[in-house]
Amino acid sequence: MRRTNLVLITSALLAAGPLLGCGGGSGGNGGDGGDGTTTTGHGGDPNTNPDDGPPAGNPDGNSAVPAEAQAEDTSNPTTVIGDGTPESCTSEAVVAGVAKGGVITFACGPDPVKITLKETAKIVNDTGPKIVIDGGGKVTLSGGGATRILYQDTCDQAQHWTTDHCQNQDHPELTVQNLTLVDGDSTGQLEEGGGGGAILVRGGRFKIVNSRFFNNVCDPTGPDLGGAAVRVLSQYQDLPVYVVNSTFGGKAGYGNTCSNGGGLSSIGVSYTVINSLFSHNEAIGNGANPAKDGTPGGGSGGAIYNDGNTFTLTLRGVKMTDNTANEGGGAIFFVSNDGTGSLIIEDSFLSHNPSAGFETQGYPGIFVIAKGDPQVTSSTIE
To answer: Which domain holds residue 157?
Structure first.
């Protein structure tokens, strides 16, 4: 055990205690709703009632949130999904509302609702530039265990190609906030290489605020496929994706599962993750990357999987516990192929994130190839 800059790093994998409250059945609210109907919750606000899942964010996180990473103003929505009743908040209404773009809110009545989508809701690239989807802390969107929930791709001409440099354009600026996304499934949906069980984003800008991701999945094998909850590619001018006050998993039975990156995954994209919680997420592939002979590949980054060249992963006020990887990085797999990327961990707590295959000595639960050692400040890694 050693202490450096108020940092505790120990190789002991200590059992973590319960994270949050009590209760908890399924990840969403109400019944299954598999036919695309809306179901109504009976446990109050899903952001605060443990019976409706762990709340959004790390309760111990108190890191400052920069202005550009905060929630967007939705006081004057351009698109409202629903007419004030739960019955009006259908799959069709969500898909059509997201396609209209702008600032999107919900009017589904006073109680929490779960809307199960029959098809993926897709961003149309010229309906912004700013696109905000705000669930108001009462809306759960479900993929019903059959489909990805949300998709944005600036290089997909079917969603309107708005520039001749789609891989590096400043719009749409998509924000997902005050929303719960559950049971998304992108298995076999191989747009942009697959992954992104709940959300797949390529291009423009993207951030997540005050949101929760439960029981999302993507393909169980593949050397570079990942992001059971979220996969992001090609952000404008390499600016970071912000993930603020959000929860991925949160306790047993709520975790997200994929070949790599149970929570987040990216290729060459920077993330800044603030005051967020990752627990019980799993990287279940096997054979790593590149795939070992006779294996399908994958199994790295139980919570976060980052690959590419020059990019940065920054954690501030983040809690990661009980995430697992069949190969490398029970918590984090971070590989900068040319050694120019940086891993920064500040005011965070990482504990009991076992790596069944490999990890970087001195950093339990992490496998890292970067520009020097991880920059760890006022954090615990054990």
So the answer is: 37-381
